[in-house]
Design goal:
mainly beta, Porin, eight-stranded antiparallel barrel, elongated
Length: about 210
């Protein structure tokens, strides 16, 4: 129920911003790459781990809110995106047993960044991204058999520091690159206190300003 209220609040925020003076509204689609860190405690659980990347895609609305009247200056870039995320694809060995584990989910993402540049030329920015995952699944494969189960101890939210940069091909069309700063994820992948993994993301986006 809390996630339903969160999604409703996001829609209300973007709708409100669309009527604000000077705000640019657009849409963004992206292809994304995901990976996890291994922290203290995790290596004690899984003695030998071959880490694999996950992939996914996103789409949603964005808003650019100028903070000055100058052509070159600061702005806030925010929005809401719906994503399918393949979080990781790992091969894990415990003693003589080896198995594969994949994690995937859907999520709502809310980036909020302070950027510097020209809205219709190019920009760089830094900020935070809040992700609300749902329908998280684990697929485990061992001895030729696989099973998909709920990812029950998945953290209810992800919060990470992100950097962003991009440029416009035309007044309306732009590309951007957005990534989580390595080592600066502010939440863990699971609610298990012994599992210290954080989720990292790299996103290549195509933007159309309305």
């Amino acid at each position: 129920m809390n996630k339903v209220f969160s999604i409703a609040a996001i829609v209300a925020l973007v709708t409100t911003l669309s009527f604000a003076q000077g705000v640019s509204i657009g849409v963004r689609t992206s292809i994304n790459m995901y990976g996890t860190s291994s922290g203290p405690g995790f290596d004690e659980i899984f003695m030998n781990e071959e880490k694999g990347l996950g992939f996914g895609f996103s789409g949603g609305l964005l808003a650019i809110i100028p903070l000055s009247d100058n052509d070159l200056g600061f702005a806030i870039r925010t929005g809401a995106e719906f994503s399918y995320r393949g979080l990781y694809d790992d091969k894990i060995t415990i003693g003589l047993m080896t198995y594969k584990e994949q994690a995937s989910e859907f999520a709502i993402s809310i980036p909020v960044m302070i950027e510097y540049g020209k809205i219709r030329t190019g920009w760089v920015g830094v900020g935070l991204q809040l992700d609300i995952p749902f329908s998280s699944k684990l697929t485990v494969e061992a001895s030729g058999n696989s099973e998909t189960i709920d990812f029950k101890d998945r953290s209810s939210v992800d919060l990470g520091v992100i950097i962003n940069g991009g440029f416009h091909f035309t007044n309306n069309i732009a590309i951007d690159l957005r990534g989580t700063i390595a080592g600066a994820a502010l939440t863990k992948l699971t609610s298990n206190n012994e599992d210290k993994r954080s989720l990292y993301q790299l996103s290549l986006g195509l933007i159309y300003i309305l």
